[in-house]
Amino acid sequence: MDTLPAADEALRVAMAEAAADIDLALDMLIPPSEGPEARLFDAMRYASMGGGKRLRGFLVLECARQFSVGRDTALRTAAAIEMLHAYSLVHDDLPCMDDDDLRRGKPTVHKAFDEATAVLAGDALQANAFYVLSEPDTHADPAVRIELCRNLARAAGPRGMCGGQMMDMLAEAAGGPMEEAQIGRLQMLKTGKLIEFAAEAGAILGKAPLQMRHALAAYGRDLGAAFQIADDLLDATSSPEEAGKRTGKDEAAGKATLVGLLGLPRARSQSQRLAAQAAAHLDVLGDRADLLRALAAYAIARRN
């Protein structure tokens, strides 16, 4: 993780603790296996454990804490969302998509295993995410479990992450310029919807009042937009060693990004505006949400 200012030390510690706890949860929820399916389990574990910022999982934990949700309950939901995120990365890295060889500083799943295993690992991670959310151990109230599954499916499906990936592929194939609003919608679907759900999931777990739930969803939506612009800035300005993955690929592939459309200074200003907007949504939560405010600043200041 990046070196944060001293004022944000609490965020650094909290994110490190969350990442460690989420890895332990994933270790239990995707245990090593024996027999013919062992290779699939190995690939699932390789894809989902031991790396990444765990931003989405941290959001679940910290937003759930606002409503005094038990840590174990929140951890199962956080792990499920990280499984689904890992599936999206495995498939995104495939030769038929972005064709990447490096992810989180190590070979991508289709390089470490093979393409067919990578496809199956992604499929299995997605299925397992919903299985975990549907289990009574995740929440005693079946209505809460249904709401979690329904909202995650919406965030990941054709009007969410998958829809955004389709728009991204079509834009790359067309090769023509996109307008700012079109790029914003593409990024909202591909990246923002899952981050928005991660923030709202904590409120769902806590059966929070509608006002609080809407505030956290709005926070996640603006945070996701700021985070994606920051990712595009890193792709344009960081080295592969800093980023832990291949950089400069957006420009090389002719991808539609706000950095490419607006230029570095204006894109950076846009990410800062969105981060401030995200933090403003937390006013209804008071001082208890200070770590979430710090996260909005971290999202645009990070170097990987």
UniProtKB/TrEMBL annotation:
Similarity section: Belongs to the FPP/GGPP synthase family.
CDD domains for the chain: Trans_IPPS_HT
Database matches in InterPro entries: Isoprenoid_synthase_dom_sf, Polyprenyl_synt, Polyprenyl_synt_CS, Prenyl_diphosphate_synthase
GO cellular component: cytoplasm
Organism lineage string: Bacteria, Pseudomonadati, Pseudomonadota, Alphaproteobacteria, Acetobacterales
Name by which UniProt lists this protein: Farnesyl-diphosphate synthase
Keywords: Isoprene biosynthesis, Magnesium, Metal-binding, Transferase
NCBIfam families according to UniProt: FPPsyn
Alphabetical list of Pfam families matching this protein: polyprenyl_synt
GO molecular function, one term: prenyltransferase activity
Annotated source species: Neoroseomonas lacus
One GO biological process term: terpenoid biosynthetic process
Cofactor annotation: Mg(2+)
